[in-house]
Specification:
Distance between the termini: 51 Å
Strand content: 25-35%
Number of domains: 3
Order of helices and strands: EHEHEEEHHHHHHEEHEEEEEEEHH
CATH class of the largest domain: Alpha Beta
Structural class: alpha+beta
Strand order of the largest sheet: 4-5-10-6-7
Number of strands: 14
């Protein structure tokens, strides 16, 4: 066994003061706690963010949306104002994991962890979101830097995400039959004719945009517009669950389904 100190923070400043050099922030714990149980992570300090009220809640002002980092997937899914302003993101949250995961996991924790199979990163890219931390603001395009890697510095805390709701949006994913994680998830968002496409679960470097699909859809927002787009299998993950060619095929299929659902 190894010794770990637990601290329950009551503010962002309090959390930052307690993290130390080898500590970890605890959000929903959906990834951190299992890795600790497997001895793949051994932080000397856990700083619990779940009781910081300033990090929770959804705010919608017209098309401007702001979601606190400690807002759970269930809360994102069930927020009436968000369902009206950006139903595609609310629906995405309702399809994450199972009820236990949705009532514990948080949007900030998911984004900060950047699991390649997570759903939110694709949405952040497609929605052109801004990631707010305790020290700065980071564009989603600059935030996701590689599998399980982000632009966050050591000790930096994600506090919220914000974005302007698109005119239309939809997310479709192909779930691994066993784990139910996304083998390919595609979020398509139309911002006044400027279409952005975010992809999770498929690319070897984590969540990514597909510029070829964006160009095709910006001129013609229909599933048929993607017929001539080729997805490069060389950029895809390949494992026991699916080859790179298979994932490239899934990305195109999920993208066409997302456009058809808009």
């Amino acid at each position: 066994m190894y010794e770990t100190s637990y601290h329950r923070a009551d503010s962002v400043a309090d959390a930052a003061s307690k993290i130390g050099d080898e500590g970890k922030y605890l959000a929903g714990g959906m990834t951190l706690l299992p890795t600790m149980k497997q001895r793949l992570a051994a932080p000397d300090t856990l700083v619990d963010l779940t009781h910081i009220g300033d990090l929770k809640g959804v705010s919608v002002n017209g098309k401007e949306v702001r979601i606190g980092a400690m807002t759970t997937h269930a809360e994102v899914n069930g927020d009436a104002a968000l369902q009206s302003a950006c139903p595609s993101l609310a629906k995405l949250a309702g399809g994450i994991g199972d009820p236990a995961v949705r009532h514990r996991g948080t949007i900030g924790g998911s984004i900060a962890n950047h699991d390649p199979a997570a759903d939110y990163p694709a949405a952040m890219l497609a929605l052109n979101a801004t990631i707010h931390t305790d020290s700065r603001e980071i564009s989603a395009d600059d935030f996701f830097s590689g599998m399980f890697e982000t632009a966050l510095n050591e000790g930096e805390i994600v506090t919220a995400i914000s974005f302007t709701a698109p005119d239309k949006g939809a997310y479709e994913k192909f779930r691994n039959p066993a784990s139910r994680y996304a083998m390919a998830g595609v979020f398509v968002a139309d911002h006044g004719g400027d279409v952005r496409v975010g992809v999770s679960g498929a690319y070897s470097n984590g969540a990514s945009r597909n510029s070829e699909m964006e160009t095709a859809l910006s001129g013609n927002l229909s599933a048929d517009a993607l017929d001539g787009v080729a997805v490069d299998a060389g950029d895809m993950l390949s494992d026991i669950h699916g080859s790179s060619d298979y994932r490239a095929h899934l990305v195109k299929v999920m993208a066409k389904r997302a456009v058809a659902a808009m």
